[in-house]
Amino acid sequence: MTELPRSIREAAELLRTRKASAVELADLALARSHADRHNAWLHLSDDHAGAQARAADARLAAGDAPLLTGIPWACKDIIGTKGIPTTAGSRILEGYIPAYSATVVDRLDAQGAVMIGKTNLDEFAMGSSNENSAFGPVKNPWRADRVPGGSSGGSAVAVAAGEVLFSLGTDTGGSIRQPAALTGAVGMKPTYGRVPRWGVVAFASSLDQVGPFANTVEDVAIVCEAIFGKDPQDATMVTDFPNDDLRRDLDKGVKGMRLGVPKEYFSVKGMEPGVERAVRDALKVLEKEGAKLEEVSLSLTDHGLAVYYIIQPAEASSNLARYDGIRYGLRVEGPSLLETYRRTRGKGFGPEVKRRMILGTYALSAGYYDAYYVKAQKVRTLIKDEYDRVFEKVDALVTPTSPTVAFPIGAKVNDPLSMYLNDIFTLPVNISGLPGISVPCGLSEGLPVGLQIIANSYQERTMFRVAAAYERATPHHLERPKEKAA
Amino acid sequence: MAIDRSVVEKAAGLARIALTPEEVERFTGQLSVVLTAVERLKDVDTEKVSPTASVLPVSNVMREDEIRPGLTREEALANAPKGGRDGEFFRVQQVLEERP
């Protein structure tokens, strides 16, 4: 075996028929990951993975192992892992070793999944290209001079390059869906409040959610079933929401479903014709499969970016106040405590994090709080209302994930606003707390394009149903980058 | 809205971030562009709209108040920065000054 199976489903079958062992799968994943040339990894945990794989084999031999037992996976390095370094892509946390694991990691451990290591990301998940990592940019496996998207770039590449079978990322404004689109993976952001965030480094707490990358819609749903559900450690979760069978409707097809196509998503500046063409083709496929397409209007789409770039830096400036050089991480001592804080943070944070801290602090400061922060929160209400109204008429929305394919490394680093525009189609979903998934829908200029499917809150099953129907009808999810890691 | 260097310096001071003069210069230009872009929110009528802090329809999530194990002292101190630990304590600089 020189390549991993194509899906979790296939791997689980191999493990159960004894055609492969968990140790073999882990060794292969580790070998491919060690050979990775995309800078996707910050830490590979050979010993930990070996021990988990041996335990998985014992469990498989004993029977009744869950579907994820023995499946190799990758963890974005903003999610805490007990005894394994967790940096959030920042110098300020270099060398930090968590004393406990995030709940999502505990849950995957309990399933018997095998964690191969920690993946590269934009520092504190702030970015759309993975160029803001303190440990160097991640490269796109489809073309080494292109970005993989961000902020979960390493987790997207680890799946797209066939190094693991799934990975976890975090999505605050598109940080799972956009890199999934740019690397040809499937990536999904759950409804706000369905996945525990205990142990995950906080960025913008009213927007952050953990979610999976994988090769197929079914695989993503399998991982969601393992990580969804209430955690007493997280007070920002939906209470008593049934942890239902998310795969139940995968095979139902879209016949008779009403799918909304928001016209504003096709009229933005900077939308590449190749991307629009691929998405329009995907709409035709869904129509052919029996869905009823309806043009809808989300008139505030354009304002989403402004709302997001006030609320998100404001919340981040508060969350990141904890990095003060006192209890963990980097400390750069000055002549006074205040000066120690300033020097530690000046040295420890990269430029994008500093920009957002300053922007967020400004938006929250006396005299500007109402004009910026409260105003943005009010427009947020209107954006959410608009989605609520649209979902009275349609079952799901179908849109492009990103206006462009993967762009050249270095093209946008000095122009924050043009970088922020990458997330124009994904961030309204976070603002409104909705679930969204990106699935591959073909190539433009030889690079992957993503199709985004958005459902109403808690309607992941409906979202998966549409995504799976599209996947079955097209071969796009089978396309793989030619430049492989091994 | 275009801003000048003093705005960046003041916000960086509040955020406890030391900036080089070059950073102040660069961030002033970049943040002016971003702040100009977000200004369009003024065009939206929000007269009768209440702000959304969270999309979750929950408040006051309660749980049993029971004693559970937390981090041990050693675990809590294990990640102390270089020079930041003194035996069983984090070492910090003096914050109170003697009265002259």
List the SSEs and their pairings.
The complex is a heterodimer of chains A (486) and B (100).
Chain A: H1 8-16, H2 22-34, E1 41-44, H3 46-62, E2 72-76, H4 103-111, E3 114-119, H5 153-160, E4 166-171, H6 177-183, E5 186-189, E6 209-214, H7 217-227, E7 258-262, H8 273-288, E8 292-296, H9 301-319, H10 337-348, H11 351-364, H12 369-390, E9 396-400, H13 416-420, H14 427-431, E10 436-444, E11 447-455, H15 460-473
Parallel strand pairs in A: 2-3, 2-4, 7-8, 7-9
Antiparallel strand pairs in A: 1-3, 4-6, 5-6, 5-10, 9-11, 10-11
Chain B: H1 5-14, H2 21-38, H3 73-77, E1 85-86, E2 89-90
Antiparallel strand pairs in B: 1-2
**Mean pLDDT figure of chain A:** 96
Q: Low-confidence parts of chain B, pLDDT < 50 over ≥5 residues?
A: none
Number of helical segments with 4 or more residues of chain B: 3
Low-confidence stretches of chain A: none
Based on secondary structure, the structural category of chain B is mainly alpha
Do you know the CATH topology of the domain at 5-42 in chain B?
Histone, subunit A
